[in-house]
Amino acid sequence: MAPTADQTFVQKACAYITRGDRELLVFTGPGHDGYQIPKGTVEPGESPREAVFREIAEESGLGAVSGVTHLTSDLWERRESRWYARHFFHADIHEPRDRWTHVVTGEGEEAGEPFEFKWVPIQNESEFALSLDDYVHLVSPDRGRGTPRVTAHAD
């Protein structure tokens, strides 16, 4: 089912940040069960690409991210009448820390919340919140880089 005119539609930018070709950056934080990745709402006048850089900095504290590529976009229904246009990006970085806590900056609901970051294997069996692992396979070392595509599905 696709969104209709009377349903809420929100743009989200999501970041798969990898270290080498085997580890994915995830965090745990309040409000959701399972791993999360840096992500957030695209603000008015902002492109999804601009939003992903901002969200990475606000949620993880990582400011020197480059080489960001768009992987895919989809339409995802979180609950009835609440649709998200999710834009997934990938960046590979060199980060020496294995774990850290970052207090979220910015003006969103999560500002001031501590997020606990760590690296996990790209291919793992862990549960991700909000179906955020839907496209992890696009950064898998045996997959290569994906061709951007658009899909629609409900959760």
Quick recap of the structure?
This protein is mainly beta and 155 residues long. It has one helix spanning 48-60; strands at residues 8-19, 23-28, 39-41, 69-79, 82-92, 99-103, 114-121, 150-154.
Report on this model:
With 155 residues, the protein is mainly β. The chain has 1 helix and 8 strands; from the N terminus they run E-E-E-H-E-E-E-E-E. Residues 144-155 have low confidence and may be disordered.
* CATH fourth-tier homologous superfamily: Nucleoside Triphosphate Pyrophosphohydrolase
The rounded Rg comes to 15 Å
Count of separate DSSP helical elements: 1
Number of domains: 1
Structural class: mainly beta
Q: What is the CATH architecture annotation?
A: Alpha-Beta Complex
Poorly predicted ranges: 144-155
Quaternary structure type? single chain
CATH topology descriptor: Nucleoside Triphosphate Pyrophosphohydrolase
**Percent helix range:** under 10%
Could you describe the largest sheet, including whether it forms a barrel? 8 strands, mixed
How are the elements arranged and paired?
Blueprint: E1 8-19, E2 23-28, E3 39-41, H1 48-60, E4 69-79, E5 82-92, E6 99-103, E7 114-121, E8 150-154
Parallel strand pairs: 1-5, 4-8
Antiparallel strand pairs: 1-2, 1-3, 2-7, 4-5, 6-7
State the main characteristics.
single chain; 155 residues; mainly beta; Nucleoside Triphosphate Pyrophosphohydrolase; globular
